[in-house]
Design goal:
Structural class: mainly alpha
Number of domains: 3
Strand order of the largest sheet: 1-2
Largest sheet: 2 strands, parallel
Helix content: 25-40%
Radius of gyration: 33 Å
Shape: extended
CATH class of the largest domain: Mainly Alpha
Amino acid sequence: MAKKSFVEMLTEIKGIGQAKAEAIVDAGFTSFTALQKASIEDLTAIKGVSETVAKTLIAEAKKQQKSSPKKPSPETAIKETTPPAKKTEEATTVPASSLKAKPTPSDKEDTTGYQVKQKPELTTEQQHALHLRKKIKQRTPTFLREEWFRYKRIPKNWRRPDGISSKMRRNYKYRPNRVRVGYRGPQKVRGLHPSGFEEVLIYTPQDLESLNPKTQAARIGASVGTKKRLAIEKKAKELHIRILNL
């Protein structure tokens, strides 16, 4: 179906104009068959197409498919015209070399492109400490500044309570939690990334050479430009070093 003719057919549907019809065709939906197979999420991703319009398009595509007569495929037409061949008594043998083995799932190429992230080499004690630190973090409260709710000018970020009459400083009941040493995690994994790597801030590809890929991971500085960042990523791939902020 030509692009112009399909655009004209789409403009006849309620709620679809010329610009919206051209956007639908440019997105790859060039026939009612493609629209029928599309999901609402695929159609709403197009600029200007709402959920209501997407439902209308799918319903109209199904209606058009039902009304259009089904044409027989070339293979079925040939089968109907050609007479059935006579069965031969002699069995035909096929050479084993011509038979191709079916590809196994392992032989198929990975089309997703996902690669498992590199893991550090940790001792059993470090792994246990990381798991314990995660549990402690889940039950750690959110520390709020004293009387943050009273005035708009006071932010929520934590500040140590001060003042001779401060009830929060004197640990009165029904006051917010204060930052204390008891909330700290295990000392063996203190300062490590949640993955278990030790973070090292880098700014040039040469900084990667001093890293140990088994225990250290790189974090590219915020001031590094795109050109140097690409060079760092290429160098890290060669040295098998994980970059945490990719």
